[in-house]
Each structure stands twice: as structure tokens, then as C-alpha cells.
Amino acid sequence: MPELPEVEVYRAAAQAVVGRTVAGVAVRDPRFVRGGVAPGELASRVTGRRVTAARRRGKLLVLDLGGGRSPAVGGLRLGLRFGMTGRLLVDGAGPIERLLHSSGRAEPRWDRLVLRFVGDGELVVRDPRMLGGAVLDPDEDALGPDALTLTLAELATALDRSAAPLKARLLDQSKVAGIGNLVADELLWRSGLAPARRAGSLDEAERRRLARAAPSTLRLLMRRGGSHTGDLMPARAPGGRCPRDGAELRRSTVGGRTTWWCPLHQH
């Protein structure tokens, strides 16, 4: 499932299309276009523009689009979200071959959005379950600070006085951008914090521990190859035991998501 580590891989792959001009756009399913914009409008507004940058904010990939040959035309941003099963393909190759909980088949009907470029090449979003989407000029200000560069002050603001469960607060993209279900469990397991704890109850030392663990855990998962490569991952099953202390893990539902945690060292 694409979380911050996977979308960062997509961002790096999308650098290959920076400098290219969009020759045409194909939207294979109108439901994939979000934000109240019709697929035809998205296609017409994107076509003819030059990709000037590929950026990431949390789990959102943003392509900055210049005005093409007309300097009078202002810039535009195309935001891409990948849901649980979305993959990015650039010039026919995908930097991630298969995602957890997704099919490994290559069905043309799953290619929800295709950007074709002048000369040659294309960028494709392949999403079997279509839980992602494309949006023009996404509201990046609605997203919290990026988890990869999270500071203690930013974390304190996200958690301050909140009665919500700690894991639910971390999954709230308006508070911290980029953390998904697997990363949240790994991060809390490494930090020794119970997922159902009231977010606002953490003391200064616990906040510092969590703020240090977030960027370091994400960088480790990125080096290993994705959000599914955490130390907790192999034990996420009935009867699974904590890799740290051997206690049997508990399975709970926190923030509407299946959650695995250790009752012995997570408090």
C-alpha cells in the first residue's frame, strides 16, 4: 500500500518527465478525477503544458506544470493520490513492481490516468481498486507537516490537547502528512507507545522519542524498500509475537484501522 516511502519512490521516478510537454491526457474512468473537475476539463487544461517539477507532500505526488509555449498562461498543479493499490509507471516501467494487498497483473483497464508527452513516453497511474485519484491544484495547505522532516514543535502542535487516540492522530493527514497504517504501527512499536493512548497525554520525553523515531523509521523503511519492511511486519498475524520482547501481540481497531501492538512495552 503506498505510504510515504512508496510515494517518495514515485516522486524520484517522476523526475524523468520533468522538462517534457504533455501532448495528451487519457482518463480511463471519470471517477478517478476528483475535486469537482470534469475529466475533459482536466485533459484540456493539462495538455500543452510543460512539467517543471515533481514534488511530494506526505502521500500526495504533485506535478508542477508551466504554461508551455505561452508565457502568458499561468502555472498549474496536478496532484496524484494512490490509495491502497495505485502504482506509477513512467515510460512503461514501474519503480515498484507490486504492492501489498494489490494484484500483480497488468490490466489495461486499471490504467486510470495516462499523460502522453511530445516526442515519446508517458506517465501512467495504474490503480486496480481506484482508491486514489487525480486533482487539479490540490489544497496542499490542508496537509500537515511532512512526516519525513517532522520536528518536535510540529509534532507537539499535532498532538496538543487532543483526546483522539494517538494512532488516529498520526493517521490524520491534516495533522501529519505521509503516515499510513503500517508505518504508524511500526513507529509506535519502536517508540514504545500504545496506539489507543490519548494523543494529548504524551509527556515531553515521549514526544521527543516519537519525533526522533518518525523520520528515522521512514528513512529506514525507504532504504529497505517500502512501508511493508518494518520489523513488526512479519508478526502481524494471530499468534504473532513481539520481535523485541516476545510477548504475544494484540490486535485492535484504532482510528478505524487494524492495529497490531505489544502490550508489554507499548504504554
Overview of the molecule:
The two termini are 27 Å apart. 24% of the residues lie in helices and 21% in strands. It is α+β, with helices and mostly antiparallel strands and 267 residues long. The protein is built from six helices and ten strands; from the N terminus they run αβαβββββββααααββ. It has a four-stranded antiparallel β-sheet. A four-stranded antiparallel β-sheet has the order 2-3-4-8. β2 (51-57) and β3 (60-65) form a beta hairpin.
Core attributes:
four-stranded antiparallel sheet, N-terminal domain of MutM-like DNA repair proteins, Helicase, Ruva Protein, domain 3, 6 helices, 267 residues, alpha+beta
- General form: elongated
Q: Tell me the fraction of residues in β-strands, as a range.
A: 15-25%
Report the order of strands and helices. HEHEEEEEEEHHHHEE
Strand count, sense and barrel status of the largest sheet are:
4 strands, antiparallel
Helix count, DSSP H or I runs of 4 or more residues: 6
Number of domains: 2
**First CA to last CA: what distance?**
27 Å
- If strands are numbered along the chain, what order do they take across the biggest sheet? 1-6-7-5
- Fraction of residues in H or I helices: 10-25%
Return the CATH architecture of the largest domain.
Answer: Alpha-Beta Barrel
